[in-house]
Design goal:
The protein has 252 residues and is an alpha+beta fold. The chain has 2 domains: 10-145, Galactose-binding domain-like (Jelly Rolls, Sandwich); 176-250, no CATH class. The protein is built from 6 helices and 10 strands; from the N terminus they run E-E-E-E-E-H-E-E-E-E-E-H-H-H-H-H. Strands 1, 2, 3, 4, 5, 6, 7, 8, 9 and 10 form a 10-stranded antiparallel beta sheet that branches. Helix 4 crosses helix 6. The N and C termini lie far apart (134 Å). The chain crosses the membrane at residues 181-201.
C-alpha cells in the first residue's frame, strides 16, 4: 500500500455510488457498522471493482474480519492499466473486526489526459486470493478532484514615468505660451523706447534752462502714453508733469 498521506478537499464516494462498477458476484451487506451502513464484498479470485474519476489522488477504505472466518484477503490496484500496488490484509485474532481500514493510497497523479477523457483516471481493484471464503470488504473511496488550470493572460504595465515622458513629448505648445513670449518682447522694446524718451526730455530741459526759451508742448503718442500710463513707470510721470506745468506758464 502506498504511504503518501491524504490531501485536503477529498470527495467521498460510498460503495453504493454508481461511479463504482462491480463485476458479477459481489456480496452486498446493509445495516452494518460501516459508513452509510453498507459494504460490498468479493470472495472469489478475479472479481473486480472499477472506479472512474478525474483527479490527482485516490484512496480505498474497507473493513477487515478475523482470518479464521474470512481468510486473508489480497487485492491489486491498477490505475490507467498500470499496476500500482498490492495489498494483503494483516492477520487478526479470532472474533476481531476492523472498520475504516485503508487498503490503498495512490501516489499523487499528474493532472491531464490518461486513458479516458482529459483529466480522467480508471482505478481497478481486483481480488487475487482465490481461497474461499476470502472476502474483500469495500466501504468507500476518497479522491482529490483535478483543479483546472487558470487561463493565461498577458498584462501590459506602463510605468507612471514612461506615461509622463510620453505625454510631455507629444503635448503641443499651447497658445498662452506664445502670448507670454510676445509680452516679453514687447516689454523689452517698450523699455528701450522709454529710455530714449527720458534722454530726450532731459536734453530739452537743459536747453530750456540755458536759453530761457519756452519749451514746445509734448507731442506724439509717446508723450501721451507717458502721461496716461505714468503711474506704471514712476519717473516718466514726474517728467511729464514738469513739462506740462512749464507749458501752461509760458502761455499766460
Amino acid at each position: 500500500m502506498s504511504s503518501t498521506g491524504w490531501p485536503n478537499n477529498l470527495t467521498f464516494v460510498d460503495d453504493f455510488d454508481s461511479r463504482i462498477q462491480y463485476s458479477a458476484g459481489w456480496q452486498v451487506v446493509t445495516g452494518g457498522a460501516e459508513v452509510e451502513g453498507t459494504k460490498h464484498g468479493a470472495d472469489k479470485a478475479g472479481m473486480t471493482a472499477t472506479f472512474s474519476f478525474s483527479g490527482t489522488f485516490v484512496s480505498v477504505v474497507g473493513s477487515l474480519g478475523s482470518v479464521d472466518v474470512y481468510g486473508i484477503p489480497t487485492m491489486t490496484y491498477a490505475i490507467d492499466g498500470s499496476l500500482v500496488d498490492t495489498y494483503t490484509a494483516p492477520v487478526l485474532a479470532p472474533g476481531t473486526f476492523r472498520l475504516n481500514q485503508t487498503f490503498f493510497n495512490s501516489p499523487t497523479l499528474d493532472p491531464g489526459s490518461h486513458t479516458l477523457d482529459p483529466g480522467s483516471h480508471t482505478l481497478v481493484i481486483t481480488n487475487v486470493n482465490g481461497t474461499s471464503p476470502n472476502v474483500v470488504w469495500l466501504d468507500y473511496i476518497l479522491f482529490a478532484e483535478s483543479t483546472p488550470s487558470a487561463p493565461s493572460s498577458t498584462t501590459t504595465i506602463v510605468s507612471s514615468s514612461s506615461a509622463s515622458l510620453q505625454t510631455s513629448a507629444s503635448a503641443p505648445v499651447q497658445g498662452p505660451h506664445k502670448s507670454n513670449v510676445g509680452a516679453i518682447v514687447g516689454g523689452i522694446v517698450g523699455g528701450v523706447a522709454g529710455l530714449a524718451l527720458l534722454a530726450a526730455v532731459q536734453r530739452t530741459g537743459a536747453n530750456r534752462d540755458s536759453d530761457s526759451t519756452p519749451p514746445d508742448p509734448p507731442a506724439g503718442p509717446d508723450s501721451e502714453l507717458v502721461w496716461r500710463d505714468g503711474a506704471e513707470y514712476g519717473p516718466w510721470k514726474r517728467a511729464a508733469v514738469v513739462e506740462t506745468t512749464r507749458l501752461r506758464l509760458s502761455t499766460l
